[in-house]
Amino acid sequence: MGKSVSAQFQTLRDHKDCALIPFITAGDPDLATTAEALRALDRAGADLIELGVPYSDPLADGPVIQAAATRALERGVTLDAVLSLVAEVSPDLSAPIVLFTYYNPILNRGIEQFLQDIYQAGARGLVVPDLPLEEMDVLLKPAKEIGIEVTLLVAPTTPKERIVAIAQQCQGFIYLVSVTGVTGMRQQIGNRVHNLLQELRTVTDKPVGVGFGVSSPEQAAQLKTWGADGVIVGSAFVKRLAANGSGDGVSEVESFCQQLRTALK
Predict the structure, then answer these.
(1) Which residue in 70, 82, 85, 194 has the most C-beta neighbors within 10 A?
(2) Number of domains present in the structure of the chain
(3) Cβ of 59: how many Cβ atoms within 10 Å?
(4) What is the enzyme's class at the highest EC level (predicted)?
(5) Is residue 50 annotated as part of the catalytic site, yes or no?
(6) Catalytic residue selected from 50, 117, 252, 254
(7) How confident is the prediction along the chain (265 residues), in pLDDT tens digits per residue?
(8) Residue 126 is part of a domain; what is its CATH number?
(9) Which of 28, 36, 42, 61 is catalytic?
């Protein structure tokens, strides 16, 4: 049943490769297009794929991803619909799927039930941006038993001792947020990221994926040079899918993914 997130990172490390991790929002412009886009990203060399579950109050998301989530919700996209989609597509993918969701939908379903459901559907990782470290235990323990790896976020403002605690708890990979604030395309990736990557290296050997604001092959290549184990690209993919409806959007996403893949080689 699918490769784990950490196994995928280990394979990449063995080949001295940097992981390409695209993010798209499930159900925007519609679920059928999401399914096509997942397959296209996998074909184009994505190593893991982050799939956003639409949520009504997405605090960590920038305007592009917020708008995509709102459109998906207006079309009636539910967590169950997203899980059916994952169950349908994941057997065809070599890239493990990491679900990005807020804590409320997990709580509503019941933590263990949620984790079992997403594992059965074929997801292998989970990012929950609004669950603080202090409350992570309720999720991390059952996740470990079920086989879902929970990724935690480190921000440019996170103090050193907290970085150490997050690195210890984290499963799969550490999600380094490259800018303070919400996701979105940024022209400049802060030099603080370079320092943070080096700082993380001193406290953990777990893989580090950098995201929030990466929008070009040049930025992706820069992050690899700085020592990132993975590069997460979200808004730039979501925007391409949204702007072009179904057919064109999927081919745009595929060619953009290929460009990023080439830049990371």
Answers:
(1) 82
(2) 1
(3) 10
(4) lyase
(5) yes
(6) 50
(7) 578 999 999 999 999 999 999 999 999 999 999 999 999 999 999 999 999 999 988 776 778 888 899 999 999 999 999 999 999 999 999 999 999 999 999 999 999 999 999 999 999 999 999 888 888 999 999 999 999 999 999 988 888 899 999 999 999 999 998 765 545 555 555 667 888 899 899 999 999 999 977 889 998 999 999 999 999 998 999 999 987 655 688 999 999 999 999 999 8
(8) 3.20.20.70
(9) 61
